[in-house]
Write a structure and sequence with these properties.
The chain is of the alpha+beta class. The chain has 2 domains: 88 residues, Alpha-Beta Complex (Conserved hypothetical protein from pyrococcus furiosus pfu- 392566-001, ParB domain), CATH 3.90.1530.10; 45 residues, no CATH class. α1 crosses α3. The chain is elongated, with a radius of gyration of 21 Å. The chain starts with 10 loop residues before the first strand and ends in a 7-residue tail after the last helix.
């Protein structure tokens, strides 16, 4: 059996202005999640050295465009990078997609029993259960939702919640924007 040699990966600290965003980055981030990322980097900057930005030989970002933007938003002057200077153009294309594909799923039962849901949400995890718990004035009404054939979710509110209609609508709109970008309330 042949043992492959492990190639040393060099993590370097570079000036943030020496690297640049991928102009054809297919990923986007909404404002709520971006703000969470900015906060995450501000409160736990040590993670940046453990999860460096990946750049091509020219310094173009192929992994970590959102972290780069959040670092700039935080006013960082330097960032950690790994140079992927031996990849072909096809491998770079593949890396950009595969680096952002989430293959795994969360075990929400384990998360809810072992982790603090408020911290999970603060750290950027979409904790739907937590979102609905925070909307406790709707919680009992969620059981009355129906899913129409056209993908609509209809939530029926009892009369006791009518006085809170504006707040409920705003809270649901925020939740939808975080979890289902492009959805709307009618």
């Amino acid at each position: 059996m042949e043992i492959n040699k492990i190639k040393k990966i060099m993590i370097q600290k570079v000036k943030i202005d020496s690297i640049f965003e991928n102009p054809t980055n297919p990923r986007t981030i909404n404002k709520v999640k971006f703000d969470k990322l900015v906060k995450s980097i501000k409160t736990f900057p040590e993670m940046l050295s453990l999860r460096p930005i990946v750049v091509n030989k020219e310094g173009g970002i192929i992994g970590g465009n959102m972290r780069y933007k959040a670092c700039k938003e935080n006013g960082l002057k330097e960032v950690y990078v790994i140079k992927a200077d031996k990849l072909t153009d096809k491998q770079i294309e593949q890396f950009i997609i595969k680096d952002n594909v989430g293959f795994g799923e969360w075990d929400y039962d384990l998360l809810s029993s072992s982790w603090d849901s408020t911290e999970l949400a603060d750290w950027g995890l979409d904790v739907i259960k937590n979102d609905w718990d925070q909307l406790d004035y709707i919680e009992e009404e969620v059981e009355n939702k129906t899913f129409e054939d056209d993908g609509q979710i209809i939530i029926l509110l009892s009369e006791k919640h009518i006085q809170n209609k504006r707040k409920i609508k705003d809270d649901i709109a925020d939740w939808l924007e975080q979890n289902y970008k492009g959805s709307e309330i009618k």
